[in-house]
Specification:
By secondary structure, the chain is mainly alpha-helical. The chain contains 3 helices and no strands. The protein is globular.
């Protein structure tokens, strides 16, 4: 059995309900999971809330840009 990954908490339910998070706190530990989550929601648009997915994508992109300039 693999250990639980806190960054994935609630992911299955959000996808099932097509309910992307309103805000995300992007970290080095969760950025790859958030990118997958974002990609799933983008594939499900227009049913997913496009505004929340767009904000998620912007947060991920901003975080990755900051990481590149370290």
């Amino acid at each position: 059995m693999s250990p639980a990954i806190p960054d994935l908490a609630g992911l299955a339910e959000r996808i099932r309900q097509l309910s992307p998070p309103d805000t995300v706190d992007v970290t080095e530990q969760n950025v790859r999971y958030l990118e997958v989550e974002r990609d799933i929601f983008q594939a499900r648009i227009p049913r997913a809330r496009a505004d929340a997915v767009h904000r998620m994508s912007e947060n991920i992109d901003r975080f990755k840009l900051r990481m590149q300039h370290r």
